[in-house]
Each structure stands twice: as structure tokens, then as C-alpha cells.
Amino acid sequence: MIFRPASLSVPIRQYLIVTGNYWAFTMTDGALRMLVVLHFHQLGYSPLQVAMLFIFYEVFGVVTNLLGGWLGARSGLNATMNAGLAIQIVALSLLLVPDNLLTIGLVMVAQALSGIAKDLNKMSAKSAIRLLVPKGAEGTLYKWVTMLTGSKNALKGFGFFLGGALLAAWDFRGAITIMVAALTVVWLFSLFALKKDLGKSNSKPKFSQLFSKSQAINYLSAARLFLFAARDVWFVIALPVYLSSVLGWDDRLVGAFLASWIIGYGLVQSVTPAVTRTIFAGTDRAHTPTPRALFHWAVGLSLIPAGIALAMTSGAPIELSLIAGLLVFGVLFAVNSALHSFLVINFASDDAVSMDVGFYYMANAIGRLLGTVLSGWVFQTWGLAYCLWISSALIALSAAVSLKLSQYHKEEKFSFH
Length: 417
Fold this sequence. Notes:
Structural class: mainly alpha
CATH architecture: Up-down Bundle
Order of helices and strands: HHHHHHHHHHHHHH
CATH class: Mainly Alpha
Distance between the termini: 32 Å
Radius of gyration: 21 Å
Number of strands: 0
CATH topology: Growth Hormone, Chain: A
């Protein structure tokens, strides 16, 4: 039997195109990050100096998510997704200048553009799924969202390996050239394949409507902010610097370990529906998570960083405690993140889904930015254990905010057939 893409339904074909775009972008995003880290480390920059190259990446993500949702509602998600791909091509192309012109300022500009592109692409992909799944099919929505989110993170981890491999085989400029060529092909295909009216609002939302009017979205966004600040306060800068400078790991081992962690984290996200259905009763009769599930999973997650910090200061083997704790943290964090991703799309307004999703991911970007800044400052001032204690406290705040969501769970939103 020959597989024919034309035999698939229109929503399935659009879902595959959206997912393919997101996958292609994600691999270049992960590869670019690894290329910049390795290349500038080879030039003699310290880990903290290299980390600061990515500050604009996070800062511009805050603005992009807010404005991108509004633009998606007015112009269509095909426009914002294709714009994200085009901007990433420009960002990569900026790095093809001769070595004497490859300044810190230029790299920061390229990272700023890449941050804009990433969040346009992510907002568009997540919003599109909400529109492609029929109403009343929340079980299908849950599976599609977790599959997209999980596969994205797994491929971002693969992108870390890809960046290192391309750098070794073709040097920095050659690696960038290959990524520009590949992403250009994806972008040209997407221009013709994505539906032109995907995600376009029936009414033209005003600029004054940028901020969410939904209390459920507001609470969920606040919980997301604390959750991702809790991850990045120790994962982004503190952990790799600690592994390198204190435990003596070489750069290749640090990169491989972090890439493997992200891949595993993404794989767990992909199977979250099976995990929540089997391990925890925080689902309704359609096997989709209730808002109360967020509270229980966040409480469990908050114990892990605190446990690692206690182990590190109590005489337990530090390397073993850190690695084992990080693996457990990855599993629980993946489930928490996947539950968030489903609930925001399920709570989003039918006519302005991209605006609700954009507002939510703006909070996500603020959390990443806060975590990144805290990670460098707290680690440099007090050390990794303090980063872990702050992480635990931030997750506890996320759990407390999540508890407020229970009052917004409406049984009639779910299909029980």
C-alpha cells in the first residue's frame, strides 16, 4: 500500500506542515546555540560571557510573543509562521560575514532576530493546533499538543549534536551556510502549502486588546512564568559552568549531557498523556488533565531541587546526587510543561487563540529571562545550591498559582464519549 499525502484530511495535512516547519526551525535553533557557544568558547570567552550573548534572544521573546499573537489574529498564522522562518534565515545569514566583522554586537543582533523568529514560529505552531482539532475532541488535542511540544524539545537537543557535528566537519561559516540553505527550502515550501486564512480572527483585534482578559489564561501564564524561571535559574548558566569549572567536565561532555537531557525531556513530553493516565488520576473521563493536576505535579517537582541542594550540602556524592536529581527533575518538569501547553490551548478563545497563546508565551519568555539573569547572579554570588533553593521556591509559587485554576474547570468543555 502506497502512502499518499493527498489522501489525508486537510487538518491532518496542515498539522503535518506546521509540525514539519516547527521541527526544521527547532533543529536550526538548537544547532545555532551550540555553534555560538562552541565557537566563542574556542575564541577564549568565558562561559558567563558566552551566556550573555543570549540575553537579547530572551528579551525580544517577551515582546514578540505579545505582538505576534496580535499579528497572528489579524494576518493569519501562516503569515507569522512564515515570517519566523524568514527572520531565522536572515539571522543565520548575518553570521556569514568574515571573521574580522563577526563582533559581539553582531552576534547579539543575530540572536535577537533568532529569538523573534523562534517565538513567532512557536506561537504559530501551538495556536494552529487548537484550530485544526475539532471541538469536543480534547483527547486528540492533548495528544497532538504533547507530541508537538515533546518532539520539538527532543529535536532541539538533537540540534545541539548537529551544531557540534557541522562545526567539526565544515567550520563555523560552512555550518551556517548549510543551515541557511536547508531552512530556505522549508520556507519556500511553507509559503505555498500553508492555508492563507489559518488562525485569522473574524474581527480585527485592536492593539489595546493585547493583554489577556481571561482570568484562567492570566493565572496559567503566571504559573508558567514561575515554572520556567525555576528551571533556568539553575539549568541555563549555573549547571554548565558548575559541571565545567567545579566537576572538571570538558566542554564536549557538558554539551552532550545537556543535549541528552533535553532529548529525554522531549521524549517524556511526547508520552505525557500515557504518563498522566497511568500514574496519576488528574484527568477527567476523556483522559485529559484537569487544572488541579498542575498543582499536584508542581508540588512533586518542587521537592527535587530542594532534595539535590540538601544532598550537595550533607556530604552525599555531589556528582551522583546532581545527575540523578537532574534526571528526575527532567521527567517531572516535562510532565508539568506538557500539562501547561495543553491547558493554555484548551482555555484559549476560539476567535483569538493566537492572542491568548501569545500572551501566555510572553509570560514564559519573562520567566526564562528572569531565570537566566538569576542563574548568573546567584551562582556567581552564592553558588549552585542557592540556585536550587530558589528553584524550589519558584516552583512552589507556580503550584500555589495553579491552585487558583481549579475554579475555571468547566466539565461541559470536555467530550466524554
